[in-house]
Structures are given as C-alpha cells and as structure tokens.
Amino acid sequence: MSQKDEFHNLDIPADGLFRELAAGVTTRIFSGEHAMLSVVTLAPYAQGTLHHHPEEQWGVLLEGSAIRVQGDEEIPVKKGDFWRTPGNVPHTMRAGPEGARVLDIFSPPRPEYKKAGSGFGT
Questions:
Q1: CA distance 101 to 54
Q2: According to the model, what pLDDT value does residue 122 have?
Q3: In the list 22, 24, 60, 81, which could disulfide-bond 77, CB 3.0-4.6 Å?
Q4: pTM exceeds 0.85
C-alpha cells in the first residue's frame, strides 16, 4: 500500500466508504487499526436515530448548528464545539436550519461501519 492511500480530504465526496445512516443523514467512513473517523452530513433539520454502541465516540461540529442528544440531555452545539460520548450511552444529532457536518472519531473502530450499507448498526 502506498503512503498516498493514507491521505484523505474532508471536501471530496467520493473519498471514504459511504453509508446512509437515516433520511437526510449520510457519512463517509475512514477506518484504521485502532480508530475510525466518520464525516457525517445532516440536511437541514435532519435527525439520526437514537442509538448506542460499546465504542467510545468523540464528535466535532465542523459546520452548521445542531442539538446533541446524549443520555437524557439535549445540548445545543455550534461550529467548533466538540464532545465525548462514552460507550453504551444513547445519543443522536438533530441538525439546525442550515444543516450540519460532524467529524466523529471512534475507538476502537466500529465493525458494522467497515462495510457500506445503511443504518447506525446495532
């Protein structure tokens, strides 16, 4: 494998493994040995499904605005905000009027995100 294969760009739509998570919510996934990045795009007012998984997750709001639902709280987030979601804590996002783009980081990588498909997995 060439080292060039290890370089990616947030703004190239064809880069990464595409997955449709919910109506108006898509992601491009980049998996390594010990961590996984997911660039999630939410259409205006789109919302993911409340879900949980054993992997730790960090998120960074790159663009737009959103409400982060985490546990039993709804927390408004703006560009530049970032957060940690411990494993098995129920969570989702609800985009604001201009939509949102989020960088999620998982450790370890989520097995169900290593293949194309749809949904948030189990």
A1: 23
A2: 53
A3: 81
A4: yes
